[in-house]
Amino acid sequence: MWQGEGADFSFDLDAEPDYLLGHLAFMEVDREYEVEFSGLNG
């Protein structure tokens, strides 16, 4: 795991079965491992 200032990342989450009706959940994780839901994509 990398460390340092600005070590945040984001990703799109897919679900199986398709609970999100074809959409992807956009998630953000900060360097303190706090997870935030930031909306739906697609």
Overview of the molecule:
It is a single chain. Helix content is 0%, strand content 43%. The protein is an all-beta fold and 42 residues long. It has one domain. A hairpin with a 5-residue loop joins strand 2 and strand 3.
Any descriptors?
42 residues; elongated
- Please work out how many helical segments DSSP would assign: 0
Query: Roughly how many Å is the radius of gyration?
Result: 12 Å
- What structural class is derived from the secondary structure elements? mainly beta
Number of beta-strand segments: 3
Cross-sheet strand order for the largest sheet = 1-2-3
User: Taking all residues together, what is the mean pLDDT?
Assistant: 83
Taking pLDDT < 50 over at least 5 consecutive residues as the criterion, the unreliable ranges are: none
Largest sheet: 3 strands, antiparallel
How many individual domains? 1
Please report the distance between the alpha carbons of the first and last residues.
29 Å
Beta-strand level of the residues, as a percent range?
Answer: 35-45%
Shape: elongated
Order of helices and strands: EEE
Instruction: Please bin the fraction of helical residues.
Output: under 10%
Architecture blueprint of SSEs:
Blueprint: E1 9-13, E2 24-29, E3 35-41
Antiparallel strand pairs: 1-2, 2-3
Summarize the structure.
This protein is mostly beta strands and 42 residues long. Helix content is 0%, strand content 43%.
